[in-house]
Design a protein that fits this description.
Residues 10-102 form the NAD-dependent epimerase/dehydratase domain. This is NAD(P)H-binding protein. By secondary structure, the chain is an alpha/beta fold. The protein has a single domain (9-249), classed as Rossmann fold (3-Layer(aba) Sandwich), CATH 3.40.50.720. The chain contains nine helices and twelve strands. The N and C termini lie far apart (36 Å).
Length: 252
């Protein structure tokens, strides 16, 4: 789905994060005016003051916010608060549409806390924001490195044994921008081209970087271990496979 072709004013909530920074770069290169919304840009989305003024004249909001914590309760509170504040401010400012990032297979993975958190975010945005369009994506190519960073303990890392089909974060950002700047459209789903095992990806990432880390598989939750994170046959596939991306990105 292509954008409308006209220059638009796009607000990016979470502009300094992994996906948000890609969106800002792509939108700027395409000639759009970007309104960044993040703490790094002096905006605290958990506080409503001044948000509607910042959204004046905005054509679309792209919500790729992420909390600083993985704790389920605190993360859910963050997402709900941000969704309410952004949604109310958007309506006050007359913003016609909101695009929010979510996860492929989210309803089927509700035995995993982060999927419960993200579904709560998606539902809160649908309830409070104007003109909602949801992009559900599989895990990003950066996911194995992120998991390793969180799970490493000296020279060992305990990694959840789960299937995944990671997608390039730049592709996710491109689709978000397409959805935000298109006059018409609905929800979409995207995935990378190839199914993988997370344990294998973390092991290969360590080898590629020369990290002397023993990767130890641990059981995933039943739904995630059974493949709830994998895309269905009708989900759009985009971008390079994980190994192609890793060879270009992973060497020190």
């Amino acid at each position: 789905m292509a954008g409308s072709g006209r220059r638009q004013r796009v607000a990016v909530a979470g502009a300094s994060g992994l996906i948000g920074s890609h969106v800002v770069e792509l939108a700027t290169a395409a000639g759009h005016e970007v309104v960044p919304l993040s703490r790094n840009h002096g905006v605290d989305l958990t506080r409503p003051q001044g948000l509607s003024d910042r959204l004046s004249g905005v054509d679309a909001i792209i919500d790729v916010t992420r909390p600083a914590t993985m704790d389920e309760g605190a993360a859910t509170d963050f997402f709900t608060t941000v969704a309410v504040n952004l949604g109310r401010a958007a309506r006050q400012a007359g913003v016609p549409r909101t695009v929010v990032l979510s996860i492929v297979g989210i309803e089927q993975g509700q035995d995993f806390p982060w999927y419960r958190v993200t579904l709560a975010h998606e539902r809160a945005v649908r309830e409070h924001a104007p003109g909602v369009r949801v992009l559900r994506a599989t895990q990003f190519h950066e996911f194995p490195g992120q998991v390793l960073q969180r799970s490493g303990d000296g020279d060992t890392a305990r990694i959840m044994d789960m299937p995944t089909q990671p997608v390039a974060s730049a592709e996710v950002a491109a689709v978000l921008l397409e959805m935000a700047t298109a006059d018409e459209g609905g929800d979409r789903q995207i995935a990378g081209p190839s199914p993988e095992q997370l344990v294998d990806l973390v092991t290969r990432w360590c080898e590629l970087r020369g990290d002397d880390v023993q990767v130890l598989p641990v059981p995933a939750t039943p739904q995630v271990g059974a493949g709830s994170a994998l895309p269905g046959p009708d989900v759009e596939r985009r971008g390079p496979d994980w190994w192609t991306w890793a060879q270009a990105s992973g060497r020190p």
